Amino acid sequence: MAKASSDQRVRDLGPDGQQEIRKLLGQLFILTGLRKENFPDELQTALLIQFISEDLGNYSLEDFRIAFRLAVKGDLDAE
Question: What stretches of the chain show up as alpha helix (H) in DSSP?
Fold first, then answer.
C-alpha cells in the first residue's frame, strides 16, 4: 500500500484512497475525544468518506489533520 504524501490531494489518492480516508477519520475521532463506542457505524463512515472524496477532494489528508488540530485547540472560529 502506497503511503499518501502530505500534499497529495484526496482526489488523487488512487485505489487506496478510501482506506487512507478511513484511517484519517479514526485519528480525527480520537483527536476530538469521541469514544470508540460512539464512532460512526459503517454506513455513516461510508457516507463521510464519500462526502470527503466528492466535495472536499481538493484538500490533502494533512490539511484535514491541521484543521482539526486547530479547531480542537480553539484556534479556528469553527463549531
Answer: 17-31, 42-55, 61-73
The pLDDT of residue 2 is 44
Q: How far apart are CA 2 and CA 20, in angstroms?
A: 10
Containing H/E element for 60?
none
Helices 17-31 & 42-55, crossing angle to 10 degrees? 110
* Mean per-residue pLDDT, 22-39: 92
Give the CA dihedral 42, 46, 51, 57, nearest 10 degrees: 130
Mean pLDDT of the chain: 88
